[in-house]
Inverse folding.
């Protein structure tokens, strides 16, 4: 669910999605091991407070779903709180609450994950519960009939009644013509209306097996402690083959697409998305690192090009952002979005012109060494700042593992980013920022529909 | 101020009795909770009168600096929006640097600078690496904009436009409109009734002199709270605090915020743009230092402040009406409020409001059960441990205890008060504050035919 929110927020927030740093790794050792049944376990030590976060990640999400069955992964996430072999519906939540733990779950295109944050000596409880619902979910029909109503209400709240998310859902459906990324994680309403608990059981039996999961523990704990506990609670769950999962690949240059939507908003906005590879799909990883730095050049701080040029010098936009997620299982999008400065009477056409000026400049003029240094410094510092939260450390590890990359990637990250040259940036801009890769959405206030 | 339980992904127990009957072996073996260690907080005052709270944390090579002033929107009663505009303009130009240079200076040292406003407080935050070069550069830029802002007129026009754009966007936010309506009513005649982000009329009439004057009176050292958390030695922390304090204008501290007067119950219905209805219920509650706060904190957890609260059970699990209903206590320095919110399909608005009203009535009359009371106290104990791990959370905590003059070991004090509390005492406090003839109800939604609640248990 958080993942749903995060994706919508991507419209507003700039993201240079980077994992935690490798430096100071000596003070925070990270270990991995694999149980005989295929469960992968990653442990990262962080001894600031007597607290741990435990996360179980499954390699399943909305990109695995087929038309007519959208929303299954997310609905199954809800039903994971409705009872398993040793636990009645909601009992796990109540027990965790009484232990003063925090828990939740999130579903995205590429993964479904469950987590608990709790006192270090309560970790066994979290692991026993996760093992129990990995092996023996109950899926009661009466609980499902109530919960699907909550899910529909969640869809109304987050998407149907949220003009920005609604527009973004349609935008993604257009921008990803070939891959499962066009499917909204929460599912289309028509599919929620006809979802059956039997479908969830089939989904659960297909994907919820130890060899399709990663356990990540970060906090005041040692690898030996986690080894003992993982063995005790998870080793008895048998391995089982999962269906073949193919990478969600896109058409490289599908042609320019335009969507015009009228929604209940007072402010118009424009969204750009270029079809680009991710780290998992790129033939040339250097181009992906170049795109990451481009996103930072455009929107990596208050002095970056979008706020500086579009917002302040030209007074063209009220707000703008760029984002690029290189850590997806399949192909990705490089996005720009902005709201015109209506106080100055600026139009969407003028904002688009401003976008293209920035993009063309990247193609023709190499960034100065000073600007590139500033951007790299922020990226590197961001790696440190992200380690302030034990949960975000665990999420980074879980996400990398689940999209088919290794958490060890973080060791080579800094070098990779440092090796990107101004020429690489120009080359990536020329390759990817072309109209054949572009989807455009014009999101307009409803009253303009009659103009 | 923040909700503790965002975006609950799950629904919960219909009814389970007997906590000890669990089949989990790990639960039976779980040791008793270890004691809550106090945070190593240091407190002092600078020569100019700024108060300082510092907690060293040497695990990561970074630190957070926050400076908070009693300069929220409740301090600009004659010009709505002046507090926010002044805060927003601080980094738009100084005697030494233009806005663009300030932005570049922060970015070049890889620091993160931010500003936040609420009804009572204006806060500037700086997150930086602790290594000397970036630390020095970031702190120097931060101190400069705090101490010598010039409020350039061309930038003012730009920032005013940003405010107008934001007000236009907020006009379609059901949540913002409901919250403003609630404050407008509960704080009638009080400075907190002023709209948080101002009004177009007032903002348009403000000039540089207004901002300079507000700055001189409110951003003084004696009106400042400096919070430092992270990888700093005592000497470094003292030096940074002195530099901030020396840079600020001199002047008296602001007087304490007035107390709100008593208001009657009211129901508001505002037209909403969406297909859902946003419901907000509010009651006056207590200040951050009120002796009733520990009991109300426990009561709030049971009512709607955690994942198996009465609100979640009734509104979400039993009737499937709402994804994320919750309640929260907000404590300002001299007053506070207790709110409940839920989003529901518009056709069920009336029925849901009645459901929640009945739930409140039962809770006020009968109070929690013994089991709920014990569970909530245990839960609170756990969250206190979890909420003091990251520098960010600790800095937020220090700001709250500093601004409200709470004891340094506020967590320990709260825990002790909650452990001593009896169920009967809690019921007395609950009856005193959960008074339904003061309940304000705000609904924001479209006008549609109302339907009775769907039957419990789904179709």
């Amino acid at each position: 669910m958080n993942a749903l929110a995060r994706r919508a927020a991507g419209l507003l927030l700039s993201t240079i999605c980077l994992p935690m740093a490798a430096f100071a790794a000596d003070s925070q050792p990270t270990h991995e091991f694999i149980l005989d049944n295929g469960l992968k376990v990653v442990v990262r030590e962080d001894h600031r407070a007597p607290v741990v976060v435990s996360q179980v990640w499954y390699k399943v999400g909305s990109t695995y779903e087929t038309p007519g069955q959208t929303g299954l992964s997310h609905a199954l996430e809800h039903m994971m709180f409705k009872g398993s072999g040793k636990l009645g519906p909601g009992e796990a939540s109540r027990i965790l609450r009484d232990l003063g733990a925090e828990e939740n779950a999130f579903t995205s295109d590429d993964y479904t994950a469950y987590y608990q944050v709790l006192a270090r000596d309560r970790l066994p409880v979290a692991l026993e519960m996760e093992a129990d619902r990995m092996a023996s979910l109950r899926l009661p029909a009466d609980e499902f009939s109530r919960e699907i109503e909550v899910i529909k209400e969640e869809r109304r709240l987050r998407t149907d009644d949220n003009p920005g998310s609604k527009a973004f859902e349609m935008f993604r459906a257009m921008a990803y013509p070939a891959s499962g990324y066009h499917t909204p994680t929460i599912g289309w309403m028509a599919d929620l209306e006809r979802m059956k608990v039997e479908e969830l059981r089939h989904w659960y039996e297909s994907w919820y097996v130890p060899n399709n999961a990663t356990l990540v523990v970060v906090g005041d704990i040692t690898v030996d402690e986690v080894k003992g506990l993982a063995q005790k609670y998870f080793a008895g769950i048998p391995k089982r083959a999962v269906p073949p999962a193919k990478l969600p690949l896109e058409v490289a240059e599908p042609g320019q697409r335009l969507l015009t939507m009228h929604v209940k908003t007072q402010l118009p906005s424009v969204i750009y998305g270029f079809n680009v590879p991710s780290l998992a799909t790129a033939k040339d990883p250097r181009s992906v690192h170049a795109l990451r730095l481009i996103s930072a050049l455009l929107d990596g701080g208050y002095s970056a090009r979008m706020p500086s040029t579009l917002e302040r010098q030209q007074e063209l936009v009220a707000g703008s952002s760029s984002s690029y997620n290189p850590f997806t299982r399949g192909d990705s999008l490089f996005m720009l979005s902005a709201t015109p400065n209506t106080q100055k009477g600026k139009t969407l056409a003028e904002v688009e012109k401003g976008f293209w000026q920035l993009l063309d400049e990247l193609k023709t003029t190499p960034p100065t060494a000073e600007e590139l240094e500033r951007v790299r410094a922020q990226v590197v510092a961001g790696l440190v700042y992200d380690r302030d939260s034990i949960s975000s450390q665990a999420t980074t590890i879980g996400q990398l593992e689940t999209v088919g990359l290794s958490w060890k990637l973080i060791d080579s990250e800094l070098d990779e980013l440092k090796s990107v040259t101004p020429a690489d940036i120009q080359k990536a801009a020329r390759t990817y920022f072309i109209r054949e890769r572009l989807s455009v959405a014009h999101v307009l206030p409803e009253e303009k529909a009659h103009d | 101020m923040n909700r503790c339980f965002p975006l609950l992904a799950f629904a919960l127990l219909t009814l389970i009795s007997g906590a000890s009957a669990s089949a989990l072996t790990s639960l039976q073996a779980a040791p008793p909770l270890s004691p809550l260690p106090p945070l190593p907080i240091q407190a002092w005052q600078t020569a100019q009168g700024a108060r300082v709270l510092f907690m060293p944390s040497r695990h990561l090579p970074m630190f957070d600096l926050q400076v908070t002033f009693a300069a929220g929107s409740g301090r600009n009663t004659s010009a709505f929006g002046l507090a926010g505009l002044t805060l927003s303009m601080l980094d738009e130009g100084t005697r030494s640097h233009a806005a663009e240079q300030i932005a570049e200076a922060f970015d070049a040292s890889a620091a993160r600078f931010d500003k936040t406003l609420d009804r009572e407080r204006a806060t500037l935050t700086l997150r930086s690496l602790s290594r000397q070069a970036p630390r020095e550069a970031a702190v120097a830029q931060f101190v400069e904009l705090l101490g010598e802002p010039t409020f350039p007129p061309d930038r003012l026009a730009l920032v005013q436009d940003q405010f107008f754009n934001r007000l236009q966007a907020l006009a379609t936010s059901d949540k913002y409109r409901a919250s403003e309506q609630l404050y407008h009513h509960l704080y009638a005649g009080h400075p907190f009734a002023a709209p948080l982000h101002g009004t177009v009329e007032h903002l348009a009439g403000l000039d540089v002199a207004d901002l300079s004057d507000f700055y001189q009176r409110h951003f003084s050292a004696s009106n400042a709270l400096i919070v430092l958390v992270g990888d700093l030695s005592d000497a470094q922390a003292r030096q940074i605090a002195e530099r901030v304090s020396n840079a600020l204008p001199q002047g008296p501290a602001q007087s304490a915020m007035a107390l709100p007067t008593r208001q009657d119950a009211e129901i508001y219905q505002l037209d909403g743009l969406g297909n859902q209805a946003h419901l907000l219920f509010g009651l006056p509650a207590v200040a951050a230092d009120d002796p009733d706060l520990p009991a109300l904190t426990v009561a709030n957890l049971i009512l709607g402040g955690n994942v198996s609260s009465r609100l979640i059970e009734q509104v979400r699990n039993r009737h499937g009406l709402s994804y994320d209903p919750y309640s929260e206590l907000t404590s300002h320095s001299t007053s506070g409020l207790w709110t409940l919110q839920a989003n529901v399909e518009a056709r069920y608005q009336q029925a849901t409001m009645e459901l929640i009203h009945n739930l409140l009535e039962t809770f006020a009359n009968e109070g929690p059960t013994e089991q709920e009371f014990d569970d909530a106290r245990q839960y609170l104990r756990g969250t206190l441990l979890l909420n003091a791990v990251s520098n960010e959370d600790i800095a937020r905590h220090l700001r709250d205890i500093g601004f409200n003059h709470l004891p340094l070991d506020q967590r320990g004090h709260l825990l002790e008060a909650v452990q001593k509390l009896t169920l009967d005492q809690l019921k007395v406090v609950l009856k005193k504050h959960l008074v339904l003839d003061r309940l304000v109800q705000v609904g924001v939604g479209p006008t549609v035919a109302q339907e009775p609640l769907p039957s419990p248990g789904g179709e």
User: Anything to note?
Assistant: The first helix of chain A runs from residue 2 to 9. Residues 1-26 of chain A have pLDDT under 50 and may be disordered. The radius of gyration of chain A is 23 Å. Residues 257-450 of chain A form a domain with the Cytochrome Bc1 Complex; Chain A, domain 1 fold (CATH 3.30.830.10).
